[in-house]
């Protein structure tokens, strides 16, 4: 997996947002999507409950859409078990 400097900058911003808005959720790693190796998954720990997970998915869904529209990179924040 190759991550360029702009992708790294965008990922760092997502991780900073994670730490600021979801301190109970921790960054785990970055992987390629199994469907498309050009898509990146930013894997994080699961929030404590379903409502918090919905908040996380909605919050980062908007940010991911902005990144896709502005830069052409498909990045998803994925809670993992």
CATH architecture: 2-Layer Sandwich
> Taking Cα atoms only, what radius of gyration do you get, to the nearest Å?
12 Å
Main-sheet strand order equals 1-2-3
Given as residue ranges, the uncertain stretches (5+ residues, pLDDT < 50) are none
- Rounded to the nearest angstrom, the distance between the terminal CA atoms is 23 Å
Largest sheet: 3 strands, mixed
Percent in strands: 15-25%
Judged by helices, strands and strand pairing, the structural class is: alpha+beta
Counting structural domains, the number is: 1
CATH class equals Alpha Beta
Overall average residue pLDDT: 95
Total strand segments: 3
- What is the helix fraction of residues, given as a range? 40-55%
Under CATH, the topology can be stated as GMP Synthetase, Chain A, domain 3
Shape: globular
Q: Please give the count of helices.
A: 2
Order of helices and strands: HEEHE
Task: Describe the 3D structure.
48% of the residues lie in helices and 22% in strands. By secondary structure, the protein is an alpha+beta fold. It has one domain: 2-Layer Sandwich (GMP Synthetase, Chain A, domain 3), CATH 3.30.300. A 3-stranded mixed β-sheet has the order 1-2-3. Strand 1 (27-32) and strand 2 (40-45) form a beta hairpin. It starts with a helix and ends with a strand. The model has no long low-confidence stretch (mean pLDDT 95).
